[in-house]
Amino acid sequence: MSSSAAAGFLNRGNSGNGSNMRGLVQFIADLRNARARELEEKRINKELANISLSGYHKKKYVCKLLYIYILGWNVDFGHLEAVNLISANKYSEKQIGYLAMTLFLHEQHELLHLVVNSIRKDLMDHNELFNCLALHAIANVGGREMGEALSGEVHRLLISPTSKAFVKKKAALTLLRLYRKHPDIVQPQWAERIISLMDDADMGVALSVTSLVTALAQDQPEQYKGSYVKAAARMKRILVDGEYAADYLYYKVPCPWIQVKLLRLLQYFPPSEDTHVRELIRESLQKILNLALEMPKNVQQNNAQNAVLFEAINLIIHLDTEQALMNQISTRLGKFIQSRETNVRYLGLEAMTHLAARAETLDPIKQHQSIIIGSLKDRDISVRRKGLDLLYSMCDQTNARPIVGELMIYLQNADFGIREEMVLKIAILTEKYATDVKWYVDISLRLIAMAGDHVSDEVWQRVIQIVTNNEELQVYAVQHILQYCKADHCHETLIKLGAYVLGEFGHLIADDRGGSPIEQFLALYNKLPGCSFGTRAMILSCYIKFVNLFPEIRPRLMYVFESYSYSLDSELQQRACEYLALARLPTDDLLRTVCDEMPPFPERQSALLSRLHQKHANTSDKRTWVVGGKDANANEKDFSLARNSGLKRAFSSTNGTMNGTNGGTDGHSNISNDLAGLNMNDAGPSEPKTLKAPNLASAAHLSPDWEIGYNKLLLKGEGILYEDGQIQIGVRSEYRGQMACVILYFANKAPTAVTSFTTTLDLEPAEKENLSWEVKGLPESTIHEGAQSQQMIMFQAKKVFGKSPTIRISYLAGALQALTLKIPVAIHKFMDPAELSAEDFFKRWKQIGGAPREAQSIFGAKGGKDGGREFTDSFIRNTVEGFRWGILDGVDPNKKNFVGASVLHTGEGGKFGCLMRLEPNYATQAIRLTIRATDDSVPPILIKLIEERLAVGVSTVPEPTEAPTYRDISDAFSNVLVT
Amino acid sequence: MINAVLVFNNAGQPRLTKFYTQLETSVQQRLISEIFTLVSHRPSGSCNFLPLPPLLASSSTSTVPSSEHNDVPSLVTYRHYATLYFIIISTSTESPLALIDLIQVYVEALDRLFENVCELDLIFNFETLHAALAEMIVGGVVVETQLERVVEGVKAQGRVAKRPVNEGRGGGLGMGMGMGMGGNFGWTGR
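Structure tokens for the assembled complex are given below, as produced in the milestone run.
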């Protein structure tokens, strides 16, 4: 291989300067041949001395620097040369310049000021390769300053219809980098446009944009909620419809990366309430599970398939509503953790830990308890760690003892790397699930005795806190600690614990055999010489408490203080002197006050948990769950854990302050600090988020001319809602009782296909409980020229509602086009005309009576007679009938008056009877309208709707085309309308 | 996100170091040697995942958590081919198996670019190595995974020079390091 490569060397070198680069080759070869670091250094220094820029080619020089850098040497002096190369015109030189810049410089580097303009020039260049180099540079070293200067250009490259796919995808991730550095850079109004790019036909662009959206959606879920439906629909198109570019098939799996990204994006949102979207997701997930049933022989295919599968499992656990899928995965996971493939075992355990973090019941996991415990003996430390996480998470009252027992056994042989974490976890479990005080004390002390050096301060301090706060624990604890302290080999941590506990509670066992004051004294005294200064200080503090508790051994205690009053350590000396003085006071009043029993610690979050979770906070993407069972995930926001410990506090918590004598040493002051509950790191970025984005789908953002179609369709079941040069939107609707079926037809009139076609429904939050809907399907994402797509929506009037829902329609036709329209669904559409005899009508009219169940209004045509609008008999009749009143002819004595009756259907409110009386005065062009209904919520809404419509009146000159005829509509929708 | 991509050989010599979060050069070197020690001592048949050694984690476990919005890497995903280790350091929010696939695509892309890639190609053509990586990862996020497009993207930037391996005397020593990735992309130990 080598000789053939050598033969082709001269031909393959970069043309033009191929021979120039030979010096580089020689240089690299020399370095490779250097047997020792010293020789390498010598050669590098020689080269550095050799370099004189006038003679040497800059590119080669920078290349050499790069190689030196890769070997781990510092090349600060060459940075300026690298930066200069960026502004070169030749691509190969520019490329090396950018490469060097991204490797050498970091975001705070001062030289970056110099390159901003060169980068901007390259971003605006027509050469896409230059664009890419510049984007890549920003993505590597871009900070706040660069972001402010260049984010506009990056965004332009991302959304410009003329950008090539390979530029777009890099622009997306460059924007992501800038966003992470400085969230304000991404402006709220970009959201819709960015989301629409998730539909890009190029999988690379879709992948990058999905990454970008995932990051944005974590911080502004409301603004990016449109991405949820997009992700669900794209998933389904890839998996179920097989819609993907064939070259993205990776070992027979269609682009596993994008699948993983989409699945992950879905986990950042709460499960959708829309049944159709849920169905889309369910279908995709089931497909993934089915595909994974066959175990391919090919390692790569297996790997890719599993990557998707495990992410799908995470999503299923997140959704937590798909019982059928949930059952499938819990059996599946049981097999995974016994798999022969180490990777699968590892990921199986991780997924199960996720399951334990979310599932209602731990039973499916407990079935596998013995296998999981077995994983602690796995050959691979990574698997052992995951096993530990899972055991920790699956622990509850019933299995705490066996699990803690196993963990204790394993702790003895565990790797040093994970002992500290194990100790923490055992300590937490012991405290959390202790039902028996003896068990708690036994395990805690054994743990400290066994793990010794791996016990972090929080662990033994927490034991003190618990013992102090639980009276029933104290005697047992002090007995056992004394036993440990008497032993020949006793870890220093236990001595610290002993010094504190004996000092506080030693008197409780003073009458026991083996617990006499002198024995307590000796137990600690024997350990004194071997301890660190901090521990000795604690023992001295314990002894001053003994002076108070056990006057009988006072001389020996005084002797200790005296000898330590000459200690070389200033802290110990000071303590000994102070204690001596305190003990020698003529009265022991002060001593007694100082050594009074410690008040219980105020209840706080366990320092242990804070400690454990420090490690998890602050990642770029937020985790959607944490290790540690359901209650650990109950409040995801602040990761707060297990407030109610298994041990009941014997004392009510009072805000006790630390006793003065105990301050001073490291050991003691740490107690007050650490137990005060360490501040948890906030998982999210600390910067306040950008302004709240407008909800573009809401009625506040209606597009111009929305009312033309809406007004017409208020009185009709079908017709054209909106039309412009590019798109025509038609509506067909049918009402039955409180249910309405509305079908929207979208026809593309533009000369090219439109893509990323998206619809979003919205309604004022206050109205949502009155009118609900269910989307039965989504329109096609791509509508070809001349083609049509449709969407069916079922509405249900639950109660009387006053506002119509709105729909946001957006699509890409080159640039992003968007419309917001009102859907002609109003309360009167749910009315059925009724027939009543004159007698019945007036009987009911009287029964209902006046206000509040009556509304009345007197109005004229808008603009009056001079405005060219008037009321006519036929206009009023048509309009009233359009509002679905059954006109009762001959009921009113005055023939000019209209009287109508109807029944309004609602889901939750039931049926309402509605009566109407309309008295026109054609001479003055005024109308008096009175509506009565069986519920006082109905008349005001109805009268407003009808008045608005009637007040428009009819033109005094006949209008040639009033509305499209049935024929017009059927022409427009000939291919979908069934006549 | 992906915090770093590293390639080193069986002797622990770095062949590619690319960090997406900034680190001191000296810390980088220490990290590489720490990871090398960890990875090279793993028995065959172990899984491809490791928690990050405490070197980087140390900054995050200090009692005063930095208020800055830090990307804390926590996962090492690695793959071993004949003489080379490919390492990705990432946060725990990346899918580990997808990272393994990413390494595979990267290696396949290099194999295409160099026609039977060997370690020496990586040594003498580090800029191509970086170019290929730049086609796949931008700012720590995966941008492209389709083999053909990665290869096309690199080739579009100029011809890939297959720089020579005529190292004279050193030839005998370095030559045997072919990665053996031509036809058999076997994982070692599997």
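The longest helix of chain A spans residues 299-319. Residues 198-295+304-321 of chain A form one domain. Further analysis is deferred to the final report.
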